[in-house]
Amino acid sequence: MLTVAVLISGTGSNLRALLEAARHPDFRARVVVVGADREADGLAHAEEFGIPRFTVPWHQHESREAWGEELGRQLAVWNADLVVLSGLMRLLPAGLVAALSPRLINTHPAYLPEFPGAHGVRDALAAGVTETGASVIVVDDGVDTGPILAQERVPILDGDTEHTLHERIKPVERRLLIDVVQRIATGELSLTSAP
Where is the site Raises pKa of active site His (predicted)? Predict the structure, then answer.
């Protein structure tokens, strides 16, 4: 059974999807801990599902590196096979990425390498393109530059706003994430040989 730690900053919709998927006996992964960089609403999902949780508040540390060191200490307690960034809105320090690599994956609301960064949905709309997408990647020391594990296109419709487009991307992200985690758990997908 693949053990998974999930890191969030917000409502945790991807986290909830993973927790629900893990209820099925044929799903070969289990979330063992949920961490956050603030008192995120999504921590309520961990509580509901009886999953331990921890918070490492960003503002309580003098640097990104110090925050990353404490986050790494908290994660080390659980020794999870895989760490999923699920809407964590902080860049992890290089030392923590290196320590977790390649067992660290992230979802992104764009068809990478198109529109990396914190505003992928807004940037796609501003560019006037007709489609964007969702991606699941291995995290490296760049910004959304790691090997792509799965991705899917999502059309941009006339009248789309950042909110409406993002709401259509989210279910695709969730589906891709669940599929990737299951394929890692079954050995169908190897993070060490990801493209």
Answer: 144
